[in-house]
Amino acid sequence: MIYSVAEIRLAVGLGNPGPQYRNSRHNLGFLVLDELAHRLEASAPYRAHRAIMADARLEDRKVLLAWPQTMMNLSGESVAAIVRYYKLELDELLVIYDDIDLAFGRIRLRPDGSAGGHNGVRSLIGSLDSQDFARVRVGIGRPTGPGEINHVLGRWSAQEEADLGAVISEAADAAEAVLKSGLLAAMNAFNTRGTGTS
């Protein structure tokens, strides 16, 4: 299913809570949602459903923003609770997260799909009993040697740090485009761009 305009009502960024994870690659979803919240002039954050949440408006629609405060591997518990509470359909959900299978900085939008090895997405699929939700995947690249866990939980390299602001900005552009124009239009705009390092 390709979602049309005005269907997305809940945007979720995936990450791990706590200052020790703040600048890790695995928290890129949080960072992108932070930028989106700033752009949309979201409300003061509040805690609900094991998440930090904020309310925003886009044109004449309310959009919920959520940063799950479970650990990454349990993100689905929080998101499923929000979906149930607000009686949302899965075509009203957008999830933003880091992707090790994409080169650093590359952005890909998709309407559904498997977890692809991402434990946060795996938790969402399990808790929602479906993989039919829209995603903004933001590349963090693979490590040059062994040690995927250390890579995703590790801090940015100096070069990545220098480029990170631009990556977050473009990922927020992609999420905002989904909210404004629908997933199909956003996919056509962003999936054809040659962002990233490979």
Task: Record the SSE blueprint.
Elements: E1 10-13, H1 28-39, E2 46-48, E3 51-58, E4 61-68, H2 75-85, E5 93-99, E6 107-110, H3 119-128, E7 134-139, H4 148-153, H5 158-181, H6 183-190
Parallel strand pairs: 1-4, 1-5, 5-7
Antiparallel strand pairs: 2-3, 3-4, 6-7
Helix pairs in contact: 1-5, 2-3, 5-6
CATH topology: Rossmann fold
Give the domain tally.
Answer: 1
The residue fraction in helices comes out at 25-40%
**CATH class categorisation:** Alpha Beta
> What is the H/E string?
EHEEEHEEHEHHH
Task: Work out the radius of gyration.
Answer: 15 Å
Low-confidence stretches: 1-6
Q: Terminal Cα separation, in Å? A: 28 Å
Strand order across the largest sheet: 2-3-4-1-5-7-6
Structural class determined from secondary elements: alpha/beta
Q: In CATH terms, what is the architecture? A: 3-Layer(aba) Sandwich
Shape: globular
Question: What percent strand?
Answer: 15-25%
Number of strands: 7
- Within CATH, the superfamily carries the name Peptidyl-tRNA hydrolase
Overall pLDDT score = 91
Describe it.
This protein is an alpha/beta fold and 198 residues long. The chain has one domain: Rossmann fold. It is built from six helices and seven strands, in the order βαβββαββαβααα. It has helices at residues 28-39, 75-85, 119-128, 148-153, 158-181, 183-190; strands at residues 10-13, 46-48, 51-58, 61-68, 93-99, 107-110, 134-139. It has a seven-stranded mixed sheet, sandwiched between helices. A hairpin with a 2-residue loop joins strand 2 and strand 3 (51-58). Helix 1 (28-39) packs across helix 5 and helix 2 runs parallel beside helix 3. The longest helix has 24 residues, at 158-181. The radius of gyration is 15 Å and the shape is globular. The protein starts with 9 loop residues before the first strand and ends in an 8-residue tail after the last helix. Residues 1-6 have low confidence and may be disordered.
